[in-house]
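Quick check before the chapter quiz. The format below is the same one you will see on the exam, so make sure you can read both the input and the output lines.
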Amino acid sequence: MDKVTKYVEKLLPKYAVVSLVFCFAWNCFVYWTTQFLCAGREHFDLTTDFDRWVPVQSWWVLIYVASFLFWVVCYIFTARLNEKEFWFRFVTADLLSRTVCGGIFIILPTTNVRPELAMDSVWDVMLSIIYRLDMPYDLFPSIHCIISLLCYLGLHKSDKISVKTKMGVLIFALLIFASTQFTKQHYIVDVISGVILTLLCYNIAMRTDLYRPVMAVFERINGKLFRGMNEKQEKNSL
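Here is the expected output.
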């Protein structure tokens, strides 16, 4: 346990550990709880002519799946490469965006019609697995797009990474946007609404003091958590 704690401390600032884990937990809570609450209700299909025009290209599932690792890496580096205040503003934007998503998912539950796959390639098989694991609900706005854009916004002001790296993050985020369309996991309105919501929540977090109570809560938790760990380590060393 001590080795794990030391490794985590090297990877992340102490103040960021609990809040980072909570961002993941809150995302899962919102996603699964809203699906449970809306089970059996009418779901709306927001298909547009643009969506009918875009073909399914199952190899984009590679980008879609890679997004999960991309998010983890970007969130860790956002915590490492920015000051404490920025981190908690970023956490506030993340939690606020997911909370608003939860409200929208309940008020306007959405679904889409997924295409029949030919199942003649490994990409079709991979995409069919995604279809089975991830039901076509909670689409508007797209959480995939929200988190991906936040990854860029969390790093774009840091002077500790190069402009090329920042552009690489932005390009990969845009590729994730595209992957949601070519895999038919989302429709274009999901992407647009995700971008708008992300920018709104990010600007609220960066321009107001809403982050202060968020930071205060996590600092209180961190204080108790790490105080307990330090006391345990002292007892073990005696």
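If your answer matched, good. The mean pLDDT is 92.
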